[in-house]
Structures are given as C-alpha cells and as structure tokens.
Amino acid sequence: MITYLKRENQQFIHENTDSDEVKWIIVESPARDEIDQLISTYHLPSDYVTSVLDENEKARSEGNWHDISERAALILIQFPKASVSPSGYMQLNTYPLSVIRTKENKIITITDQSTDFIEKVKMNGLQDSELSVHSTLLFRLLWEISKSFNGFLSKVIAEIGHLEGELKIATENSQLYQMMDIQKSLVYFESALSENINVVKRLYDDRESPDSYDHLPHLHDILVEMKQGLTTTSIQLKLVDQISNTFSSIVSNNLNIVMKILTSLTIVLTIPTIIGGVYGMNIKLPFANREDAFLWIFLITSFLCGAVIYFLKKRNLL
After folding, report:
1. Which of 80, 171, 260, 301 is buried deepest, with most CB atoms within 10 A?
2. Mind telling me which PANTHER family this protein's record contains (predicted)?
3. What gap in Å lies between CA 122 and CA 315, rounded to an integer?
C-alpha cells in the first residue's frame, strides 16, 4: 500500500496521487506491481525497495543523504516489533525500514510490517527546524526508533524481574521457555542496535554544506539513546544468562529433593513389606501361636518405621 503525504502548517496531509507538493511517501507491505512502480517512477535501484522484504537484511546506508545529484540515497535501519512466540510468550524481533531520498527530493519509507512510530510521526507532523525537511523527517524517524528499542527493553526488564520472583518455586519448564524468548529478543536487539549505531555514525560525515554542523546535535541525541539501549541490552543479556543458569540449577535441585523424599519413603515402606513377607512363610515364627500376634507385629513394624523415619530426618534425608 502506498500513501502520499504533503506538508502543510507543520502537519502531513493525505494526497490521492503523487504531485510536486508530496514530500513523504509511505509504503507498507508493497506488492510486486507497487515495487515496479516505485523503481521506474523514481529511478531507484531495485535493492532499495526489495531489501525490506528480507527480514534478515542488516542496517546500512548507500549514497550521500545530503547530495543526491548522482543517485538517490538510502538509509536502511532496524526497528523492533513485538510478537507471540511458539511457546506463548512475548518475543521481540527486528525488521528493516528503508528511508530513501529520491532525486525529486521526496522521502520514501518502505516497510514490510505495520509500525507505530511511522503513524506517530504522521499524526504529529514535524516542528519547524533549521534543517531541511528530508533531514528533519529522517532524524525524527531515527529518534522514534531508538525510543522504541528502549521502551521494549523496559518491558523486558519487568519480565526479568517477575521471573526472578519465581525462582523459589521454579519447578516447571515454563519459566525456562520464557527465559529463552527473552534471550532471543535481547540477541536480536544487540545486533540491530550495533548496526544502527554504525549507520548513524556515518551520517556525521554527511553535510549539506562544508561548514554545516546543524545536524550534529540531533544525531548526538539519537546516538546517546541508541547507545543507552545497547548498553542496557548487553547488561540484561548477561543477567539473563546468569538467571537462566540459576533456574536450571534450582529446577534440578528441586527434582533431587523430590527423588530424595521418594527414595526415603521407599525405604520406610520396605520394612512392613519385608516383615509381611517373612510372616507369609510356612515355618515356625515368633508370635505365631499368640492370639494377639497381629497386634504385636503391627506395633513392632510401626516402631521400626518410626525409628527409620527419625534416623532419616536426623540425617536430613527426608
């Protein structure tokens, strides 16, 4: 689907078709004919448009964002999105977003996923800035993406805290499945943020003019936010590894406790089984001729079982 937007009074307004006033073209889950239309209309390299169809595409930049005299410029960045894993828990994945500046000085954003941050920028518009519209829009998108990473990381930290509270009662595999999903999400985040930071650093070298440094404060804020997310991701990944090992140890220890109790109970129950087996033999045995033989055998058996239970508890075996 292709959406055409023009800018009017700091806000974006929908247009039915492309025109000279259109500044931003939003493309979501493009069909084959829409891809061909974009490539032919704006003279774009095919990989600029098709890259987002590959979920494993890595962040990169091509061309000079501020100098499109030779060809269109591409900024491909990774953004996060939540989904439900096969085990039923929240899992965070990263997907590519292409931001293209065409020779007609239009901005084209292409994704294969629906995104909240694009809708947010579209609804709130752009504030007046000393930068050009295409740079202002790019930096706003990068800022919203960096905030998305940190927002999802806050949810991951909350989940990790909840799992830590379940350490004492961890007897099932469900916590381990959830921990696996968290680890997977953090690995994706660490890789995506590292590559995003490299792309943003390269933008430091691109200037609209040799003496222009107006873009640096904006990029600095974006880099600080992304580096904060990367640092948080690395720390949480280490903590999750430790918690995962602790979970495994606790589950294994709880299993050992259960097996210890069952083994001890088996020993205790073996006593009446042995005595019953002995008195089942057809030979002369003590108490065999007494009328209260069963009572005495019962009392002796109970005493022996109680003594064994006391001994096992004394040795912390039961």
Report:
1. 80
2. CORA-MAGNESIUM AND COBALT TRANSPORTER (PTHR47891:SF1), TRANSPORTER-RELATED (PTHR47891)
3. 70
What is the C-alpha separation between 293 and 275, in angstroms, rounded?
Answer: 13
Q: Would you list the domain boundaries of the chain?
A: 2-253, 254-314
Beta strand residue intervals within the chain, DSSP E: 2-8, 11-15, 22-28, 60-62, 73-84, 90-101, 107-111
Which CATH number does 254-314 carry? 1.20.58
In CATH terms, 2-253 corresponds, of 3.10.20.80, 3.30.460.20, 3.40.50.300, 3.10.350.10, to 3.30.460.20
Angle at 148 between CA 144 and CA 150, to 5 degrees: 120
Q: Token digits for 70?
A: 């030779």
Q: CA-to-CA distance for 185 and 92, rounded, in angstroms?
A: 5
Q: Which two tokens stand for residue 129?
A: 């800035």
User: Sorting pLDDT into bands at 50, 70 and 90, what band is 215?
Assistant: low
Q: What is the mean pLDDT of the chain?
A: 78
**Position 7: which residue type?**
R
Distance in angstroms (rounded) separating the CA atoms of residues 112 and 97 = 8
Confidence at residue 211, expressed as pLDDT on a 0 to 100 scale: 47
**In the sheet where 90-101 sits, what is the strand order?**
11-15, 2-8, 22-28, 107-111, 90-101, 73-84, 60-62
- Express each pLDDT in 13-41 by its tens digit: 777 777 767 777 888 887 888 888 888 88
200 is written with which tokens? 């943003």
Query: Per-residue DSSP letters for 90-128?
Result: EEEEEEEEEEEE-TTS-EEEEESS--HHHHHHHHH----
Say what the pLDDT of residue 142 is: 86
Residue 275, judged by CB atoms within 10 A of its CB (0-12, 13-18, 19+), counts as middle
Sign of CA dihedral 118, 120, 124, 127: negative
Q: Tokens 């709880």 identify what position? A: 254
